[in-house]
Amino acid sequence: MLIKSLTMIDFRKYEQVTMEFGQYTNILHGENGAGKTTILEAIHSLAYTRSFKTRLDADLSRHGRVGYQLKGLFSDHQGDEHEVRLKVESPRKKLVSVNNKSLTSRAQIIGKFPLVSLTPEDSELTFGSPEIRRLFFNKLLSQVDPVYLENLQIYARILKQRNALLQAYTNNGVAIDRVLIATLDDQRAEVAALIHEARSKHLSEFKKLLYEAYGELETENSLKMAFISNVRITAGSIESIYRSAFQDSLAEDMRKGLTSRGPHRDMFTFFLNTKDLRKFGSQGEHKLVLVAIKFAEGRFLENFLEEPPVFLLDDLFAELDVKRSKMIVESLQGSHQIFITATDLADLRHHGLKLEGDTLQIIDAGKIQANG
Ligand SMILES: Nc1ncnc2c1ncn2[C@@H]1O[C@H](COP(=O)(O)OP(=O)(O)O)[C@@H](O)[C@H]1O
Ligand SMILES: [Mg+2]
After folding, report:
1. CA 41 to ligand 1: nearest atom
2. Under a CB-based contact definition with an 8 Å cutoff, are residues 138 and 152 in contact?
3. Among protein residues, the one whose CA lies closest to atom 9 of ligand 1
4. What is the pLDDT of residues 75-91, one digit of tens each?
5. Beta carbon of 116 within 6 Å of any ligand 1 atom
6. Cα of 149 from ligand 2 centre, angstroms
7. How confident is the model at residue 358 (pLDDT cuts 50, 70, 90)?
8. pLDDT in tens, 94-132
9. Of 178, 150, 157, 151, whose CA–CA distance to 166 is shortest?
10. Which ligand ends up closest to the CA of 343?
11. Do 69 and 6 touch, CB atoms closer than 8 A?
């Protein structure tokens, strides 16, 4: 996949600009505040209908404006072009179209324009709460498995309904409709089993790629990733295991006013030399694991979708030594379209980026006319 051009209207600091990109390495150069990250956000917003920094479209609209527009021309590995447009007219109205065909759900675009982003926000992936890792894996698996995404959406709807009943009971003493709860839990057990099976299957594949990628960066330490199911799955029908776990936890759920068991509480944990990375890892160790996760993400997407993803690399070299930086850059430069931000070009060269040849395009973010 590659993105050939981008138009932004009223998107953050940009009033109206169009820019063209090169097939391989695109360097977004400029001082802090020049607008480099915004370009990455725009590309991500087109591919996934939302930014990696915020879910609030109001933050993305240029100060004083309500709404913004983005347009991107993507080209797949067969050379077929796809024009993606995203138009936010008001806080609750977002229109997305591909080749002038309006989309009716996010699912229609997820996985069509694969990107791998590595930005400062991603450090949360290893430092942050279990929810962040769940979201990451949900996004990853949704791209290769539309049925998984559909099941997540069904599960979320059931969960919301169940929690509303529990809260009405706990907070306001509204009697619990046990028949309704039982029906919801039957439906929930059915999708929970499908979600569990998809996670188990895809994550064993992802793990292989992760260990391989980590081994290329680091040979001293050993990395393990565990998928820890919130309900212990023993032999037998997964659906009935979930069903009885849901029944068993109902009394506790009524006390707490929330749903305590189910795949919405599954955990994905990284261990470095058998120790929980989140608790014990150093900054540098976290960063290497993060880079390995991102490499594995790229290979996973490429294997499944048969389409090389675009890499969005923001502030890549922070916490990374020159040796590792060189390995990363060499493995991507010339084979994938990459966007890499830099305040200092000499720093890029120092970290192994080739700054000459026809694979390179330098975009001076500071010189892009915010209104031209
Ligand atoms: N909604 C907005 N409207 C106008 N300007 C914005 C908006 N959001 C951010 N900015 C401005 O954009 C600049 C940051 O752009 P950014 O892409 O993060 O720069 P860089 O990555 O080059 O440091 C800041 O000057 C910020 O004030
Ligand atoms: Mg930035």
Report:
1. 17
2. yes
3. 12
4. 999 999 999 999 999 88
5. no
6. 31
7. low
8. 999 999 999 999 999 999 999 999 999 999 999 999 999
9. 178
10. 1
11. no
